[in-house]
Structures are given as structure tokens and as C-alpha cells.
Amino acid sequence: MIKNGLKSFFKSLKYFFTPFGTLALSVILGLSVAIPLMSAAIGELTANVQDIANNASLDFNALKDSFVSSVGALNWSEPTEAIRSILSRDWLMNTFTECVKALVEDYEPLVAQAQEALNHCIATIVAGVVLVLFFAIVGIIAGYFVTKSLIRRTIAKRAFRKLFLATLIDSFLVTAYVVLSSYLTALWPASLIILTLLSPFLIGIGALIEAYLLHGWKTVKAREIINVKNSFKLLLVNLLIILIAAAFTATVVAVVNTVTGIFVGLALFEIAAIVIGMNAEAYVKDAVAQKLAPTNP
To answer: pLDDT tens across 86-107, in order?
Structure first.
């Protein structure tokens, strides 16, 4: 199982550019819409700030008086303390604010106009970022299902009629797990911790049960498929696949850059998730094929 699982993962890497390309195309489409919106918002902000600046009346004498007053208000009987105050961030910010207020007549209305223009620009930029993220999520989902259909044909092909059966089995197993977990937790709260630690093993058992019902029923014995040994093997191969995908992603981040690493990592983990979800089915199908294979005389 471990050998075949790893083989399936590496074989499925030939579809790498399906999720990678779908994600990249989606992000490019999102950027093609978002960048013009952001650019227009920044241009509008610049124009608004220019208008506000052109309409402002400046009083440089008031600026000078404000600055002199702020400096004179310091305790110059202690020059060291006064100089330390001048160099402090709070004093500089407060003095700058007061000087600007003195310099610009009708300061408050102009600040309100500038703040409104800035808020509009920021809101548009945030909307653009959200739009790009939305396109990226759509690309990830679309790439996942397209890649899954391609990989399934290679390692765990099944008839369309079995899709409904698989949905029923999944629903039953998930419901049974939730009910059992709730019941045991109500009896003994500490059991929640134990169930959490055992969840990867239990998920493996569930995957083997589903795979057996879909592909091995009445062909191979249930105990040959659904057992502790196979569950641990399934857990191990799935863990190895995740570690390989993570190691390769980290290498790309270190050698190239973070953005490329994110794109590569998302594509790799999509393929890893798909293969992990089919490893049990692939194992059962292989066991059935060996069972039905004619023996040499």
C-alpha cells in the first residue's frame, strides 16, 4: 500500500499544471479587474487632495507663532529635559499637528474632506484585494475538481453510479462518528482528547470501509481490507505524501520566492489531498484485481 500510494502521488504530478494553471489564470483575471479599479481610486484620491490643497488658505505667520509657542512652553530651566522632549515622538507629532492646524485656515473641514477621499480610496483597494482572493478561491476549487477527475481515471476509476453510493456511505460514516463522539464525550469528557488523537487512524478505517463497500464487496473478504495494519499503512503513506509536498514547497520558497512557493504549494497540496482521498480505493481495486487475476497453471 505504501509503495503504491507514493507511486500514485508521483504519477499524479503529471497533472501539476492543471491546478497551477487554473489558479494562476484565476488570479490574473482577478488582477485584470482589480488593478484598474485600484488605479482609478488612487488617481481620484490624488485629484481630490490636489483640489483640497488648491482651495486651502495658508498662514505662515500663524505657523511660526505656533511652533515658537510650542518650543517656548517647554521647561528650559532644565535644558536636557527640554531637548529630550523635542526629540520625543509624542512631542513632534503633537507639535506638527498644531502647526498644520495653524498653517491651514478652515483646517477641520479640509481634514474631513481629505479623510473622506482617503476612506473611499482604501475601501476600493480593499474591495480589489477581496475580488482577487475570490477569483483565487474559485480557481482553487475549479482546479481541484478538474484535477480530481483526471487523477481518478488513472488510479481509482469508478462508475458514475457509485458516486451516489459513495455519498451515502460518507454521510453515514460522518454521522456515526459525530454521534459516537458526542455520546462518549457526554459520558467521559476526556474521551474527546482520545478521539482527537485517534482521528487520523479512524479516518483511515472509514476510508477502507468505504473503499471496500464500493469496490470489494463479495469479491474479497472484509477482514483482508479493513484491519488495523492497513489503517496504519494508509495513515503512514498519507503522512509521507504530505511531508513530500511540504518539503518541495519549502524548497521552492527558499530557492525562488514566497509567491512562487505559495502557487506551487497550493497545486501540490491539491494533488496530495486528491491522492490521499483515493489511496484506499486504489488499494482495494488492486486487491480485487489480484483476486480475480487468473492463476498460472
So the answer is: 778 888 888 877 777 776 766 6
Cell readout for 93 is: 507629532
Please compute Rg for the chain using Cα positions.
Answer: 32
Work out the burial of residue 146: count CB atoms within 10 Å of its CB; fewer than 13 is exposed, 13-18 middle, 19 or more buried: middle
Residue with cell 499503512: 233
What does the pLDDT look like over 217-258, one tens digit per residue? 888 888 888 888 888 888 899 889 989 999 999 999 999 888
Output the nine-digit C-alpha cell for 62.
500663524
**Could you give the angle at which helices 89-103 and 60-72 cross, rounded to 10 degrees?**
150
Report which of 290, 284, 274 is spatially closest to residue 8, judged by C-alpha positions: 274
B/e letters for 63-96, b = 16+ CB within 10 Å, e = fewer, are beebbeebeeebeeeeeeebeebeeeeebeeebe
Cβ atoms < 10 Å from Cβ of 220: 17
What crossing angle do the helices spanning 191-211 and 258-292 adopt, rounded to 10°? 60
Pairwise CA distance, residues 132 & 112, whole Å: 30
Please give the model's pTM, rounded to 2 decimal places. Answer: 0.72
